């Protein structure tokens, strides 16, 4: 586990710090990504997205931490991209058998994939027992007592797990 990267707000840094960070490190970051991904276009996109993320979050690294900070953000973006591709491929495989009239439009596909990615992220963020209780309830239709037996926990533990899982669902639903 990497140590957290110290950050400062843009107001605490000299004017133009994001511009300077971009000028000083964009080329290096793009080369670093290209060497790892083997794809010039993806490396360019992720390098650009890294700086967009900095612009949106308004977080900048402390002096001397620029490259380490940029690498951390870029790695997270690559992981996000891989996860999204995995979810999208699974969805496309699930609808591949549909005939032309039943095939969702590109817009509908994009909405479904975005929703599935958000659900995947939500499930991934849950503790293992909470996730397992939720999935057993929702996909296997087990009662709380059956889940408690399967997980070898008390009924009150299952109730707490389900409360946490439902709260996570509401956060996903109402976060935008």
Look at the helices and sheets and give the structural class: mainly alpha
Give the strand order, joined by hyphens, for the main sheet. 1-2
Beta-strand proportion: under 5%
**Helix proportion:** over 70%
Number of domains: 2
What's the tally of helices? Answer: 7
Please count the beta strands (DSSP E, at least 2 residues each).
2
- What's the order of the H and E elements? EHHEHHHHH
Pfam family, one: Sigma70_r4_2
Domain RNA polymerase sigma-70 region: 21-86
Organism: Pseudomonas typographi
InterPro entries: RNA_pol_sigma-70-like, RNA_pol_sigma-70_dom, RNA_pol_sigma70_r2, RNA_pol_sigma70_r4_t2, RNA_pol_sigma_r2, RNA_pol_sigma_r3/r4-like, WH-like_DNA-bd_sf
Description:
It is a single chain. The protein is mostly helical and 176 residues long. The chain folds into 2 domains: 7-89; 101-174, Winged helix-like DNA-binding domain superfamily/Winged helix DNA-binding domain (Arc Repressor Mutant, subunit A). 73% of the residues lie in helices and 2% in strands. The chain has helices at 17-37, 40-57, 66-95, 106-125, 128-139, 144-151, 155-174; strands spanning 7-8, 60-61. It is extended, with a radius of gyration of 21 Å.
Short description:
The protein has 176 residues and is mostly helical. The chain has two domains: 7-89; 101-174, Arc Repressor Mutant, subunit A. The protein has seven helices and two strands.
Write the layout of secondary structure elements.
Elements: E1 7-8, H1 17-37, H2 40-57, E2 60-61, H3 66-95, H4 106-125, H5 128-139, H6 144-151, H7 155-174
Antiparallel strand pairs: 1-2
